[in-house]
């Protein structure tokens, strides 16, 4: 195997009853990078992470993590990974420090070393002030950061993060993002699952788009975004009669056919140069006397990403 | 080496429970108060309503049954602890760490047994305060305590197995539907011989009845006696039942733990 790959997956299959959760899942993650696994609910993200973290046995295929086979050498894999599951897996009753010391002891650090490591991690994740407070009184963001810290006690070679910011407010999200960025600076390999394109965009150097248990598109965030059309320009017109006119204007500015939604009187199209497209649209719409209720630039939603990627793939 | 780590890791996980006690002392206190309240309630409230076999002291008769019922209710504590960990993902974190699965279980078992020992000690103290005594010497009394804890130990595996199979903290209610009849359909309060035929047989064969019968005998406290084979061999059954429970539910628990990766 290529030694610069921290995760190497070939043709992973896993089914629950009749329903496949992973259906020929392939993945290569280069060591020292953040790889985003992007997919909607039920795409198989958690299943993939659980197989890679030795929690779940695949029905077929092969997966190497840090050079070891997850099904044949799980003990070696476990010594080299950290896992942050979809829900913070820490003891709610204990304080943050007691949690980290306990996990440190379970990683077979000496008593003194476990304490030192706990203090270091609390400091690093901005939890030193809450070290003695029971975790059930932590905010969502603090809990996540403690969860991250607990996964980093042994300085794992590969860290799995399953939707680390789902359910967090923007502030908690930023806290977790900052923590992940700091990790990568340290050289940890991170496989991150997310439902949000912008999260993958912010953190990952490569993205795989997962749908129905297999990768339907992959590449750097820029590649992926240009393939799916980057930002979108939305125009909401005041009168139904202007819909066709607005669509004609956007068609001239966009890289693809605009989508028209008569119910909300919205015309939407992917654009490449966002600011130029916006100013041009405003100018032309005004010149043609089309009354506009709202006009906005936005990132494509995941649905749009999937529409496009399945179009591209199929 | 592996065994040493399994034991050390098990102890770390036990310590975690002990720290829970320290962090929420009121929970332990309320747990103990509940047991004490049971003793007082049954000892004084219902004391007059039940004819004690051989005309002995009612509380002498009652206490061994209360001890055993408390051991039975320990099942709920085990169940709650295991499902809560599974629910919060703590079990997954343990499983993704380089520690033996047996360590997690040993830790759980030790913590629960320590907890039960503490509860039993509180109930014994309370029993002594309300006039309960043992009469057959300290050796026999220790034997009785041993049988009570043996029952708790056996139920531990039933609790772990149920928790791993049902996996839902909410199913505790369903578990209580199972546990409470087991507590009452026994020789703890009423003589099985006064129950309708098949119900009485069920009560006599209830593992709880075996432990209670044996404990009464070993403490020298009044009991129902009875002519059936089980009623005559309570001590044997108080060992055989837990042994059987362990033989069934220990392997099942191990298998259920391994099946988490399915
Ligand atoms: N234990 C299970 N039993 C049965 N089906 C399951 C189980 N776990 C997952 N599935 C199914 O497998 C598919 C993939 O689920 P998975 O949890 O991996 O998706 P996901 O991408 O993590 O979704 P989400 O964004 O909701 O977390 C889903 O259709 C799900 O219903
Ligand atoms: Mg998931």
TrEMBL record, chain A:
The keyword Translocase applies. Gene3D superfamilies: P-loop containing nucleotide triphosphate hydrolases. It is a peripheral membrane protein. It comes from Phytohabitans maris. Residues 7-237 form the ABC transporter domain. PANTHER family: ABC TRANSPORTER ATP-BINDING PROTEIN, DOXORUBICIN RESISTANCE ATP-BINDING PROTEIN DRRA. It is found in: Cell membrane. This is ATP-binding cassette domain-containing protein. SUPFAM superfamilies: P-loop containing nucleoside triphosphate hydrolases. The keyword Translocase applies.
UniProtKB/TrEMBL annotation, chain B:
Residues 26-260 form the ABC transmembrane type-2 domain. The keyword Zinc does not apply. The keyword Cell division does not apply. It is a multi-pass membrane protein. InterPro entries: ABC2_TM, ABC2_TM_bact-type, ABC_2_transport, Nod_factor_ABC_transporter. Its main location: membrane. Keywords: Antibiotic resistance, Cell membrane, Membrane, Transmembrane, Transmembrane helix, Transport. It is found in: Cell membrane; Membrane. Pfam families: ABC2_membrane (PF01061). Belongs to the ABC-2 integral membrane protein family. This is Transport permease protein. It comes from Phytohabitans maris.
């Amino acid at each position: 195997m290529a030694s610069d790959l921290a995760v190497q997956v070939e043709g992973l299959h896993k089914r629950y009853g009749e329903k496949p959760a992973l259906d020929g899942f392939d993945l290569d993650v280069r060591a020292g990078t953040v790889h985003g696994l992007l997919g909607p609910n039920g795409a198989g993200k958690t299943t993939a992470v659980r197989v890679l973290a030795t929690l779940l046995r695949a029905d077929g295929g092969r997966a190497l993590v840090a050079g070891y086979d997850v099904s044949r050498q799980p003990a070696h894999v476990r010594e080299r990974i950290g896992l942050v599951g979809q829900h913070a897996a820490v003891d709610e009753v204990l304080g943050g420090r007691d949690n980290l010391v306990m996990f440190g002891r379970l990683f077979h650090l000496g008593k003194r070393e476990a304490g030192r490591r706990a203090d270091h991690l609390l400091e690093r994740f901005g939890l030193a002030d809450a070290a003695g407070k029971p975790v059930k009184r932590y905010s969502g963001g603090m809990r996540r950061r403690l969860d991250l810290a607990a996964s980093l006690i042994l300085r794992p070679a590969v860290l799995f993060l399953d939707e680390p910011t789902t359910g967090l407010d923007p502030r908690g999200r930023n806290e977790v993002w900052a923590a992940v960025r700091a990790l990568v600076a340290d050289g940890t390999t991170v496989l991150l699952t997310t439902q949000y394109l912008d999260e993958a965009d912010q953190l990952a150097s490569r993205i795989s788009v997962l749908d129905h248990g297999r990768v339907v598109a992959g590449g750097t965030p820029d590649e992926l975004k240009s393939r799916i059309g980057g930002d979108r320009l939305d125009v909401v017109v005041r009168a139904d009669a202007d819909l066709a006119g607005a669509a004609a204007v956007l068609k001239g500015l966009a890289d693809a056919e605009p989508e028209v939604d008569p119910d909300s009187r919205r015309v939407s199209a992917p654009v490449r140069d966002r600011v130029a497209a916006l100013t041009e649209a405003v100018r032309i719409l005004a010149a043609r006397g089309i009354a506009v209720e709202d006009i906005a630039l936005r990132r494509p939603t995941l649905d749009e990403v999937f529409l496009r990627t399945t179009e591209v793939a199929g | 080496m592996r065994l040493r780590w399994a034991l050390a890791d098990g102890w770390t996980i036990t310590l975690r429970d002990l720290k829970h006690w320290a962090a929420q002392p009121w929970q332990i206190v309320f747990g103990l108060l509940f047991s004490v309240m049971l003793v007082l309630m049954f000892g004084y409230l219902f004391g007059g309503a039940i004819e004690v076999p051989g005309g002995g002291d009612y509380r002498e008769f009652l206490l061994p049954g209360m001890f055993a019922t408390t051991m039975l209710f320990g099942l709920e504590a085990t169940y709650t602890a295991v499902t809560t960990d599974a629910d919060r993902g703590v079990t997954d974190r343990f499983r993704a760490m380089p520690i033996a699965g047996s360590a997690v279980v040993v830790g759980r078992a030790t913590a629960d047994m320590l907890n039960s020992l503490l509860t039993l000690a509180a109930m014994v103290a309370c029993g002594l305060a309300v006039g309960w005594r043992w009469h057959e010497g300290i050796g026999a009394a220790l034997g009785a305590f041993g049988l009570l804890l043996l029952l708790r130990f056996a139920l531990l595996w039933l609790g772990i197995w149920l928790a791993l199979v049902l996996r839902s903290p909410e199913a505790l209610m369903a578990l209580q539907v199972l546990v409470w009849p087991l507590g009452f359909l026994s020789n703890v309060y009423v003589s099985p011989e006064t129950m309708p035929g098949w119900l009485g047989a069920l009560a006599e064969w209830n593992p709880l009845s075996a432990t209670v019968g044996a404990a009464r005998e070993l403490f020298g406290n009044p009991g129902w006696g009875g002519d059936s084979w089980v009623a005559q061999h309570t001590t044997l059954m108080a060992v055989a039942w837990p042994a059987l429970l362990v033989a069934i539910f220990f392997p099942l628990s191990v298998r259920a733990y391994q099946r988490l990766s399915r």
